[in-house]
């Protein structure tokens, strides 16, 4: 039962040794799928996720929007990505994550610059370890930018939650499974516009404000990693 699982150490640190407001290590790389228009790979903690983006004319023609592009994200978890092998094919969770990622990316892309186009975002989770929707969205934003799609800003996301009665940043797998709350959030950093905010669990108003403040403080660090990944790719290309 949830109440019998200890998620904090006696010294006040979390089970993985992090402080309450400390993120797991994050690495982002671009240009990892040669035949895609844009791509990215992210390691966030033990999460390993690859994203490929393809930009094309929407087909069939009756599916086109003559004024703006259509964004379709497809989130998929490999069967071996979790300890108990996942059954192949979409389920309710993967469909829901695909939908929220599509909507969040649509808020960042200048859709009217690509009328009649379809932007396909394929997300493959190779290893899952809590927070895959936010890691997927963060990587997808980089992959879309890598494809040369005009964007107002990169979407940057983070999670916070409640474990052993404490508000913590970037939930671990145990904290996600056995904690009291999980709050994924994503924004457009330049304007601070929130493009994703969900809550699973129970928190007070004060705890919710503490969690969102903790995430907002972490967002610039994640945003910098996104931009460095894009800049690093083009710096290498220029060097060649």
TrEMBL record:
GO terms for molecular function: 3'-5'-RNA exonuclease activity; RNA binding. One of its GO terms (biological process) is rRNA catabolic process. Its main location: cytoplasm. SUPFAM superfamilies: Ribonuclease PH domain 2-like, Ribosomal protein S5 domain 2-like. It holds the Pfam family RNase_PH. It is an enzyme of class 3 (hydrolase). It is found in: Cytoplasm. Keywords: Cytoplasm, Exonuclease, Exosome, Hydrolase, Nuclease. Transmembrane segments: none annotated. Residues 22-150, 153-214 form the Exoribonuclease phosphorolytic domain. Its EC number is 3.1.13.-. One of its GO terms (cellular component) is cytoplasmic exosome (RNase complex). Belongs to the RNase PH family. Rrp41 subfamily. Component of the archaeal exosome complex. Forms a hexameric ring-like arrangement composed of 3 Rrp41-Rrp42 heterodimers. The hexameric ring associates with a trimer of Rrp4 and/or Csl4 subunits. Catalytic component of the exosome, which is a complex involved in RNA degradation. Has 3'->5' exoribonuclease activity. Can also synthesize heteropolymeric RNA-tails. Catalytic component of the exosome, which is a complex involved in RNA degradation. Has 3'->5' exoribonuclease activity. Can also synthesize heteromeric RNA-tails. This is Exosome complex component Rrp41. It comes from Ferroplasma acidarmanus Fer1.
